[in-house]
Amino acid sequence: MRAFAPHSAARHGLALCHVCELVSPVRNVRCPRCRSRLHLRGSESLQRTWALTIAALILYFPANLLPILKITSVTGDKQNTILGGVVQFWQQRDYLVAIIIFSASVVIPVLKIIAIVSLSLAARTGRRPFGMTRIYRVTEFIGRWSMTDVFVVAILVAVVQLGSALSIHPGAAAISFAGVVILTMLAATSFDPRLIWDAAGRAESKPND
Amino acid sequence: MLALHEGQKALCPRCTATLQVYQPDSLNRTAAFAAASAILLVVANWFPFLTLRAGYRESQMLLWQSVAGLEDQGYVSLAGAVSLFILLAPTLLIGGLLYLILPLFWNRRLPGAIEICRAVFWARRWNMLEVFLLATLVSLLKLGKLATLTLGISFWAFVALILCLTSALVSIHPRELWDRLEKARE
């Protein structure tokens, strides 16, 4: 069994500056090079992560229930929610667009919220540190791709200026959805994966029960 | 600082993540790619990005108009977010890198270098050019049935910009950059 705890810099009172990566004693309070505040671990990492995740979860409902796009044409007004748009593309046999939008707008945000919650739990229990660290890296990388639908709305609104024939307006869900993406990105940033390893070290040093 | 040779990389002894890979000529490469990105950024914003044709009507969209469209519709905060992701963050990244690295060739540091370096690393997270590219392709497929969409020069500059900027970001060696900035003369 590998030991998780023995040689962490934190044990020696050394902190890695989160901005410029200089290692210095944490009693400096501020990084001697770039003047950022030094912390052994992300400051109130778990509290911030929980708060941002819960806020994202709340915004997730209006993001999916309200229309993201309003199309006005001669045949009448049409409003589309994110899921409605996916269904419509699927029925029109545009499978590629349907799959892209479904994964970027529905699957990734949900998976991301689940991932951040399980990471925050792992930071207490210290279970499966390797797997959790991998989940953390994927979560950090993948989050930005959810912004696709918001950009699609921006492009459609800008490019379609055909006056009476057709006009496209953004719906209220666009803002909520951008909020979900930004909040989950901030939540992933404020999570400090070293907490998982600290917990793993603690779990290891305790006698098995 | 750790000296790595070609084909070597440093791993974290605890979680086995890659700490550092062999990055030869980090400063030269970053500067070159950042300079190319700067030119492409201007081209990408200067020429039409998409042209839409439906019947006799034609409308052209410049890159920044995707932000202006949202603002016109009263979605100011959304317009602000989109402009951060596709205009401000890339500009800050490219301008910041050039401002930091070019003087380093003469071992000099311009005023505010430390703050700008912090801003550059912050902007890296919020730069979403590649996501915007995917969104453009989705929009093409979406509107394909209603109208004819043509890609402008700016679109291709945009693709090249993504490649150059990604290469610039990959070749940055943060520790070396910070060390050099610290030792450079004001």
Provide a compact summary of the structure:
The complex is a heterodimer of chains A (209) and B (186). Chain A is mainly alpha-helical and 209 residues long.
Q: Structural class of the helix and strand makeup of chain B?
A: mainly alpha
Low-confidence stretches of chain B: none
Give the total of beta strands of chain A. Answer: 5
For this structure, the quaternary state is: heterodimer
User: In the CATH hierarchy, what is the class of the largest domain in chain A?
Assistant: Mainly Alpha
Q: What's the β-strand tally of chain B?
A: 5
Helix percent of chain B reads: 55-70%
Distance between the termini of chain B: 23 Å
Radius of gyration of chain A: 22 Å
Q: Any idea how many domains of chain B?
A: 1
Major sheet details of chain A: 3 strands, antiparallel
User: What is the CATH architecture annotation of the largest domain in chain A?
Assistant: Up-down Bundle
Within the largest sheet of chain A, what's the order of strands?
4-3-5
CATH topology of the largest domain in chain A: Butyryl-CoA Dehydrogenase, subunit A, domain 3
Give the amount of beta strand of chain A, in percent. Answer: 5-15%
Distance between the termini of chain A: 17 Å
